[in-house]
Specification:
The complex is a heterodimer of chains A (88) and B (110). Chain A has helices at residues 2-25, 30-55, 59-84. By secondary structure, chain A is mainly alpha-helical. Chain A has one domain. By secondary structure, chain B is an all-alpha fold. Chain B has one domain. Chain B is built from three helices and no strands. Chain B has helices at residues 2-30, 34-54, 62-98. In chain B, helix 1 packs antiparallel against helix 2 and helix 2 packs antiparallel against helix 3. Classes of the chains: A mainly alpha (88), B mainly alpha (110). At the A-B interface, helix 1, helix 2 and helix 3 of A face helix 1, helix 2 and helix 3 of B.
Chain lengths: 88, 110
């Protein structure tokens, strides 16, 4: 039962990831690309958590933590680059 | 008894996270402005990912729950900062782009 629910959620999240990729392709300007990249990072974090439940392994959540850190830093750097011209 | 309650809670949290993620992607697709898009995108990292990570309590595995709590705390700390940085960048760029010369726009950082 739980395996069924987790696999359905994994499939749905993968479809959402594809939809987010299409959003990234049709985005108008750089700021919208930053917003969609942040959204895609949180979708991938959720996917890694679901994969960890599916395979009964906790290591994927460490990868999710590293990905959260990387997406936070990249969002900050890209937003500052957009506003100021350089990321510092 | 407890295992049934935990299973139902985990399934409900997974469903909530999936629904909120779907609404968030649809909102980013639908909304016309960066600020309203940000309102929709903040929901994904806020409620969506945190609900899916909270469903780790149904696995009854100590290492998984500890890692999930770490990720939840990190997301709670950093998601508002990222959204605020994007909104600040949009405001700054728009104010400096559209303000006429000599108008008191937002102050440039030194």
């Amino acid at each position: 039962m739980r395996t069924l629910v987790v696999s359905v959620a994994l499939t749905w999240m993968t479809l959402l990831l594809v939809g987010g990729g299409l959003l990234l392709l049709r985005s108008r300007d750089m700021l919208q690309r930053i917003v969609v990249a942040d959204l895609l990072a949180s979708i991938v974090i959720a996917l890694l958590a679901l994969l960890s439940y599916w395979r009964h392994t906790s290591y994927y959540l460490d990868a999710a933590l590293a990905l959260a850190l990387l997406s936070f830093v990249s969002t900050l750097a890209a937003a500052r680059y957009y506003a100021e011209g350089d990321p510092f | 008894m407890l295992t049934a309650v935990l299973d139902v809670l985990g399934i409900a949290l997974l469903a909530l996270g999936s629904i909120v993620m779907t609404i968030s992607v649809y909102g980013v697709f639908r909304m016309p402005d960066v600020y309203t898009q940000l309102h929709a995108a903040g929901m994904a990292s806020g409620l969506g990912a945190i609900a899916i990570l909270l469903a780790s309590m149904a696995t009854r595995d100590a290492a998984t729950i500890t890692d999930a709590v770490l990720v939840i705390v990190f997301l709670l700390l950093t998601a508002p900062i990222g959204s605020h940085a994007i909104a600040w960048a949009a405001y700054r760029r728009r104010a400096t782009d559209t303000a006429p010369s000599g108008a008191p726009g937002p102050r440039r950082r030194p």
